[in-house]
Structure formats: structure tokens, C-alpha cells
Amino acid sequence: MFETQETGPIIELEKVGIRYGRGPEVLSNIDLSLQRGSFHFLTGKSGAGKTSLLSMMYLWQKPSRGRLSIFGNNVNFANRNSLSLFRRRIGVVFQDFRLLEHVSAFDNVALPLRVSGMSEKEIRKRVNELLKWVEIDRSTSAITSTLSGGEKQRVAIARAVINRPDILLADEPTGNVDNGIATKLMKLFVELNKLGTTVVIATHNENLINEFKYPCICLKNHNLTIVPAGEKIHDMEI
Ligand SMILES: Nc1ncnc2c1ncn2[C@@H]1O[C@H](COP(=O)(O)OP(=O)(O)OP(=O)(O)O)[C@@H](O)[C@H]1O
Ligand SMILES: [Mg+2]
Q1: Are 186 and 218 in contact (CB under 8 A)?
Q2: What is the pTM of this model?
Q3: Hey, which of 51, 54, 220 would you mutate to test ligand 1's pocket, going by the most ligand atoms within 8 Å of its Cβ?
Q4: Which CATH number, 3.40.50.920, 3.40.50.12500, 3.30.390.50, 3.40.50.300, labels domain 8-89+165-229?
Q5: Please, are residues 59 and 137 in contact by the beta-carbon 8 Å criterion?
Q6: Which tens digits make up the pLDDT trace of 158-180?
Q7: Which residue has better confidence, 233 or 126?
Q8: Which atom of ligand 1 is nearest to 49's Cα?
Q9: Is residue 2 predicted with pLDDT exceeding 60?
Q10: pLDDT confidence of residue 230
Q11: Which residues lie with the beta carbon below 6 Å from any ligand 1 atom?
Q12: What is the rounded distance in angstroms from the CA atom of residue 60 to the CA atom of residue 196?
């Protein structure tokens, strides 16, 4: 059984390559070390590999070469059970939301808490509070398929953060909302980060990157560079 190491990087990539089938490598020779409690933006032009990198960190796909370690464990040697235990400690906001469309917003957000065995009374309190915060208070019982894109996005965010994951991976989580809500959602991620969650936010939103000064993982030409907090990101890289 795998142990969780509480020291050292929480996610570590060494000479990692990602490819689909027999296609060319989307990302090559990626080295990256994310410290516990860190906060990073992830940028790069459409097709640069942001979603591919996040889905590897979420253990959805394995690297085609190199080493990926998470919570101090090399995932190449992890079995299905261990991978699913690791995944439970990662909150993820998918670019296409991946909500359960036929149940309510409330039930989507409650799901991770129900899996963890929390009482319904406590679940009701926590879920309603968070949905109010992301401004979904009127439509909590609405069937998810009837919500707008921006509402679904906020439900997906609430589901990802409700159980205070060790890692939050969010793929363009503010792509469907206006600037005011985008800033508010960013504040939610900042709060979560202050509680200890390691955060990676993929975004094309230059305003957010400039307003919230965190380092930026930039993907370009199959490679990765880190732009330190507060430094200008070149337009070409967003
Ligand atoms: N399932 C897949 N099968 C084959 N190729 C894929 C698959 N998913 C992504 N790709 C390819 O990998 C490359 C990177 O795609 P990815 O979705 O990671 O980019 P992205 O940076 O997230 O782009 P966007 O900003 O448009 O979301 C693209 O060339 C894409 O065509
Ligand atoms: Mg993407």
C-alpha cells in the first residue's frame, strides 16, 4: 500500500512526455515540481497542452514517458485502487464541467461529501452555504441540464472545492462567467489555498493573471517554462 508523504513536492514530473496514441508528443521532457500549498496559473495558446497536463496530474492519463509522482508516490507503480484513493484527494474542474446532468445542482455538489459518509444535515448546511457563495442560491434544486453555461461552471467549481481537497486542478474555471464573478471565484481559490490546498488554474484570462500575482506555468512549443509571480506574460503565450 502507498504512503502519503507530507514533505517534499506534492506533484513532481521528471522528463515527462505526453502523446495520444501514435501521434506526436503534445508535451516533451517536462520537468515540474509543485510544492505543497503553492498556487500557479497555467497558460498557453489553444492546443498547447493545458488540458493534457491537468488530466495527467489528475491521473486520468499516464505519461507516455518519464516519471510522475503525486503525494510522494511514483504513479507508474500505483495500482487502480491507489490511483482512485489519490484522486479522491484532488478536486478537479473540467473544461467541459462533466456534471451529472439529470440531478440537481445541490446533488452534484453534495456528491463528494456523500461519498465520504457525512451526515445529510451537515451536507445541507455546507452545500447551501457554498452554492450561495458562488451565487447559485435560487437554482439549487434545478436539474443541472437546465442551467446556463456559467451556472454549470460555478456548480462544477463548488463540487471541486466542497471537501477541501489537497490539490485543486481547474481547467479554465472562469471561461463562462463575467469579470465580476471571475474575480469572486478567484478569491474562493485563494481562500482554499490559504487553508493549504495546492492550486493550479488553467486560464487565458490575462486580467486575472495580472490581478492575482502568482507564478505562471507557460506551455509553448511542447515545452514548459515558469514565469515568476508578477512578471509580464507575453501575449503570444496566452
Ligand atoms: N483525446 C485526444 N486524442 C488525440 N489528440 C488529443 C486528444 N486530446 C488532446 N489532443 C491534442 O493534444 C494537443 C493539446 O490539447 P489540449 O486539449 O491539451 O490543449 P489546451 O491547451 O487545453 O487547449 P485549449 O486552450 O483549446 O483548451 C492538441 O493538439 C490536441 O489536438
Ligand atoms: Mg484545454
Answers
A1: no
A2: 0.95
A3: 51
A4: 3.40.50.300
A5: no
A6: 999 999 999 999 999 999 899 99
A7: 126
A8: 18
A9: no
A10: 87
A11: 20, 26, 44, 46-52, 95
A12: 23
Contacts for 148 with CB less than 8 Å, ≥ 6 apart: none
Q: What is the pLDDT of residues 82-125, one digit of tens each?
A: 999 999 999 999 999 999 999 999 999 999 999 989 999 999 99
Please say whether the beta carbons of 71 and 86 come within 8 A: yes
Give the number of whichever ligand sits closest to the CA of residue 94. Answer: 2
Residue type, 160: A
Atom nearest to 219 CA in ligand 1: 21
Q: List the domain boundaries for the chain.
A: 8-89+165-229, 99-164
Q: Which residues are close to ligand 2, an ion, with C-beta < 5 A?
A: 50-51, 95
pLDDT tens-digit readout, 140-157: 899 999 999 999 999 999
Q: In what order do the strands lie in the sheet with 90-93?
A: 90-93, 167-171, 198-202, 39-43, 216-220, 223-227
How many A from CA of 117 to the centre of ligand 2?
33
